[in-house]
Amino acid sequence: MKKRSITLIIWLMSVALIGVMAMQYYFIRESFKQKSQLFDEAVSAALASVAGKIEKQEIFEFAREQDRINQEKFKADQAMRERNEQLLASQLQIQERIKKLQRQQFDYQQRYREEEENLKALVPNAIYVNNAFFETYIRRKRYQTYIDFNVVNKYLGEGYIDTDIQLSAKREVPLVPAKDDSTRFIIPYFRNNRVEAMQTATLIPRINREIADQLQELENELLVLNAKKLQQATTLFDTLAIIGGKSEHILKDIESSILLAKKPFRERLNIKYLKKELDTELNKRDIYVPFNIEVRDDQSYIIYETLQSNNPNAKKQFAKYSTKLFENDLNSSPGLLSIYFPNKSSVIRDTMSYMLLPMIALLALLIGAFAYTLSIIFKQKKISEMKTDFMNNMTHEFKTPVATIMIASESLRDPEIAADGKRVNRLANIIYDENVRLGNHIERVLNIARLEKENLKIEKVDVHINAVVSGVLDSMNLQLQRANGVLHTDISAPNDLVIGDELHLSNVFFNLVDNAIKYSKDAPEITVKTYTTKHHVIVTIADKGMGMTKDQKEKIFDQFYRIPTGNVHNVKGFGLGLSYVNDIVKRLNGEIQVKSEKDKGTIFELTFPLKGITPDREA
C-alpha cells in the first residue's frame, strides 16, 4: 500500500472519530440542559407548594386560636346573654350555621386554590378569562381571530424576570352572557413568539354559589337580630358590622388579615415545619440532594439561613430558587424563601451516568479499532517491504549459481577445454556444487512454506545432540577455514538424548553457525558448548561478531528480517534462517534465547528437554 493511500485512510478515520466525538459531546450537552430544566421546574413547584402549605397552616392555627378566644368570650358574657336567651340562642344557632357554612366555603375555596396551583405548576402561562369573554370570543370560533395575546416582562430584581401574558380583544363585539360560573383559563402555545394554538382549562367555580346563597339568607336573618343587639357589641368589628350593614364574614376576613399582618414575621414562620415540608415536597419529586435555606423578611433582612460561608459571593455560585411567603396578605408579601443547591451539576451528572458509561465504552472501542487498524496497516506495509527485499535477495541468490553453471557449461563446449580431463573434472565439480547450492536455497524456501502451512513433516526419534552438533561443525570446518576463523568446542554434555528430528536439528545448528561466520567483521571466533541440567540439555553458540541492538534482537525471528549491514553487502541470505530455527525449536518443545551486545558478539542458547521429560512435568 502506498504512503499516500495510508495517509488518506488515517485522515478519513480521524475525521470519522472526531465526528463521533463531536456528536457525543453535543448529545451530552443537550441532555444536561434538559435535565437541568426539569430539575428547575421540579424545585420551583416544590417551593410554591411549601409556600401555600405554610400560609394554610397559619390560617388554620389562627382560626383555632380565634375559636378559643371566642369560647372564652362567650363564657365571660354568658350572664348578659341569659337576659335575652331566646334571642341569643337564635343568634348562636345562626352563627353556628354560618360558621359551618363558612368552613365549607373555606374548604371549597381551598380546593379551588389547589386546583389553580396545580394548573399553574403544570402550565405557568395559563391565563384567567371571564366567562362572558369566553362565550363571546373563544367558544364562537369565528371571533377567535379577535383575541390578542400581549407578553409583558417585569423585572423582579436580582436578575429575575417575571413574564406575564395579558389577554384582550382586538375588536369589541357584544358580549354573550355567561352560561355557568365555572372558572376558565386559556393556555396559549407559542412558536417563534407567535401563538399557533390554544387550549381551554375549566376549573370549579371560585365559590360555591349554593353555600353563598345560604350564607346570604342567614346573614339577612342576623341583620334583624343585630338591630336588636347594637348595644351588646363588644368589639370594634362587631359595631362596624352592625352599623355598616356589612356581612360579618367579610369583616372577619379583614380582621384576620390585619391581625396576621401585625404579627412579627419571625412569629409567623415555623422553621421546623418549613424544613419538614421542603424535604417532603422535594422527595415527592425524586430530589434527594443537600440544600441550604435562606429566609428574608419584608426589609430583606435574613432571619434564618443554613448556608455558612466567609465568602459573600459563594451563594452566587450556587443554583438559587426563590418564592414569596404569605403572598395573599393585604399588603405586599412580607417574606422571601430561597434555597440553594451546591451540588446541582454533580447530581445531574450522576443521573446521566447510565448514558456516559456506554458512550465512553463505545468511544474507547472506536479508538481501539482505529489503533488496531493502523497497526495492521503498518505491519502489512512492513511485511510487504520485507517480502520485496526477500524477492530481491532470492533473485540474487538464485542468479549467482545459475550464472556460474552457465559459465562452466559454456567452457565445456570449448574443444580445447573439453580435451583437458582435469579442467573438465573441475568444471563438472563446480556445476555440481552450484546445483547443490541452488537446491539448498530451494529447499530452505520450501521448508518455510511448509512451516506456514503446518504440513512440515517432523520425525520424533531418539537423537544425540552431541553427535548432531559435532557433525554440523565437521561439515562447516572448510567454510570456517576459508574465513580464517577459530572454533572453540566443548561438546561434553553427559546426557544428550532427546526426542527430535535429526535433519531439522542439523539445519538449526547449521543456520546458527553459518550466521556466526557471516556476521563476523574480521576472522570469526566461534565457541560451541553442550551441557546438561537436571531435565534439559543446553547448546550455546557464541561469536564475537557485529552483535545486535535491542530493537534488532526483538525482530530477528520474524520472517524476511535481515540485520542491516550498512553499505557492505557481503552477507547473503533470505532472512528466513532464524525464523525457521525458532519454529523448529518450538515444535521440538525447546526454547531459544539470545544475548547480544552491539559490536561485542552474540550468544544463542538452545534448551531441549531430555528424553522422558514432558513440558507438563517440567512445568
UniProtKB/TrEMBL annotation:
- In Swiss-Prot or TrEMBL terms, this protein is called histidine kinase
SMART domains, per this entry? HATPase_c, HisKA
Q: Which GO terms describe its molecular function?
A: kinase activity
Pfam families under this entry? HATPase_c, HisKA
Q: Which residue numbers delimit the Histidine kinase domain?
A: 393-612
Q: Which CDD domains match?
A: HisKA
Enzyme Commission identifier(s): 2.7.13.3
Q: Which InterPro entries match?
A: HATPase_C_sf, HATPase_dom, His_kinase_dom, HisK_dim/P_dom, HisK_dim/P_sf, Sig_transdc_His_kin-like_C
Q: Locate the coiled-coil region(s) and give their ranges.
A: 84-118
PANTHER family listed in its UniProt record: OSMOSENSING HISTIDINE PROTEIN KINASE SLN1 (PTHR43047:SF72), TWO-COMPONENT HISTIDINE PROTEIN KINASE (PTHR43047)
What stretches pass through the bilayer?
A: 354-378
